[in-house]
């Protein structure tokens, strides 16, 4: 039986996670879920972000389902570095998987793109780059202040995520991988990424490849998102590009993500891309679809591909039948998805 | 009389620069232009990118008008680092100015945004950050390879560009500045940018301010570009965001930029955001509007605000009267713009 750690978190986190759990229970009866109280509320109450004992407990689960953590009242970085990134790094979740589809029924912002035409997945590196926390400050608060941030990239780290991207591409219809970087400016990291990409590509003659600079990719995601199949890129570029991909496919209310440790040495973590949205928290109006799709990624990762497919089909049905202008209720959406997915 | 150095460059560079010069001559008779042969062609012919003697000559001009440099046949970084970035850094062009307007008559990709609604300017830092070239590689081509890129940020460098952004905002109608960074992950550089931004903001109580993470800004540029007035951000974020801003306002065919040394210690440089587009070079079909708008920024910088306004008005007229589906001819567009701007 799957043991899931649930970190509902702050703001709308608990609301959307409740619906994701409804759906999980409907398709995989007997899931054992343990709740962990982490996030802004706990930090305010206790000053703790992620005690080592909790980290150790989390490590004993098959997967983590996370709602959203964060609140404007917490200084920037405290929860991001101390909790979210801490988990991604401690559990070596090097594949940050972010699929984007323009679902039929969803009004996208682009005039020329029709529902069903966009179906891409960004494989964002999750454990290196500028997220390593390798920065410093000298002469703070003086005119001589200097602040640095260092992007750290290893052959080890780049190769494993590039391999993952190619493996995913071979399981998809179009079999295409786009590498995104900024090789013309970041010549050291760019060269490492390019050479590694080319080496892995040579082992996959059946996969089409292309390279784009990050600025060009940001533009093409707006003008021609249909062109992408699998995109592989570094941690920071992936952060930015996945928000653009979400924007052109109906918004982050629908965007799911998985922070995956493919080997299963550590638990993988699944979370909607949206944040805690304190402005609408507690009103029961948040869209749980991103959390539910994240649960589908969780099911897939744990080997329950059939259950995952049923959840995805339920979401497709839900979105295709939404009536524009009718406000949604979080719990009602969850009920419909659970009953549809249960079949 | 203004002394302009012209670097037409590669691909469509010479074609679009020719039209920008037509327009310049029309509104400011007597401009003294000197052509410099730099770019991929020269590198292939001589192995030289930017000889010191040429750099010294360029320094003696009032401004530089650049078409586009680059070609797929040149290894990544050679011309970017050796020419374009070399000029930006050597001439301390710390304000990389990139206005974006959705001109009436231009079909944008966004269904919900109407022409005239978007009018923003990104003030991108031009001399620091990840563009400093502070990277390294160890154990190249071995499994132990590590590659780094360092973002260098100084109070000096951040403050001057933030001040420029506020100064620009006070001259605009909405008087709003948005700082974009990633303070929750890049905590050192993010803190320097935030603290500096707040200090300068305190001196400008008449300017509204907001902060956004770069991923959120990338999303909002797609879903709600109308919300922005002046955006100030670092070198790399500015690179990415300005391509998104260009995409949502009709494409980089229309996007102008100025690499500005506000003090005038060194010449400022004006260039279309688009590249050399080798696929359409030599056919006379490239849109010269981005180059012409860059020339308008040049005129403005040299104190010829009236001439700049006439060029901008000519572009507005041209774009409002374009008939969809009718292919454009570079030289004809330039002729129309020159005659309209001459009045
Ligand atoms: C909250 C933040 C640390 C995080 C990131 O930058 O990865 C978020 O933006 C995301 O994309 O999951
Ligand atoms: C060509 C490249 C070095 C340049 C940059 O990254 O600044 C370009 O993308 C730009 O935006 O002007």
User: How far from one another are the termini of chain A?
Assistant: 21 Å
Major β-sheet of chain A, in short? 10 strands, mixed
SS strand fraction of chain A: 15-25%
Shape of chain A: globular
Organism (chains A, B): Micromonospora globbae
GO molecular function (chains A, B): 3-isopropylmalate dehydrogenase activity
InterPro entries (chains A, B): ICDH/IPMDH (IPR050501), IsoCit/isopropylmalate_DH_CS (IPR019818), IsoPropMal-DH-like_dom (IPR024084)
EC number (chains A, B): 1.1.1.85
Q: What attributes characterize this protein structure?
A:
343 residues, alpha/beta, Isopropylmalate Dehydrogenase, 2 domains, 11 helices, 12 strands, binds 3-isopropylmalic acid
Protein described:
Chain A is α/β, with parallel strands linked by helices and 343 residues long. The first copy, chain A, has two domains: 1-94 and 261-343, Isopropylmalate Dehydrogenase, CATH 3.40.718; 107-259, Isopropylmalate Dehydrogenase (3-Layer(aba) Sandwich). Helix content of chain A is 41%, strand content 22%. Chain A is built from eleven helices and twelve strands. Chain A has helices at residues 13-27, 40-46, 52-59, 78-90, 155-170, 187-202, 214-223, 235-248, 289-301, 305-320, 330-342, and strands at 3-9, 32-35, 63-68, 95-101, 119-125, 129-138, 146-154, 176-181, 208-213, 230-233, 256-260, 268-272. Chain A has a ten-stranded mixed sheet, with helices on both faces. The first copy, chain A, has a two-stranded antiparallel sheet with strand order 6-7. The longest helix of chain A is centred in the middle third of the chain and has 16 residues, at 155-170. The radius of gyration of chain A is 20 Å and the shape is globular. The mean pLDDT of chain A is 96. At the A-B interface, helix 4, strand 6, strand 7, helix 6 and helix 7 of A face helix 4, strand 6, strand 7, helix 6 and helix 7 of B. Chains A, B: Keywords: Manganese, Metal-binding, NAD, Oxidoreductase. Chains A, B: Residues 3-337 form the Isopropylmalate dehydrogenase-like domain. Chains A, B: It comes from Micromonospora globbae. Chains A, B: GO terms for molecular function: 3-isopropylmalate dehydrogenase activity. Chains A, B: Its cofactor is Mn(2+); Mg(2+).
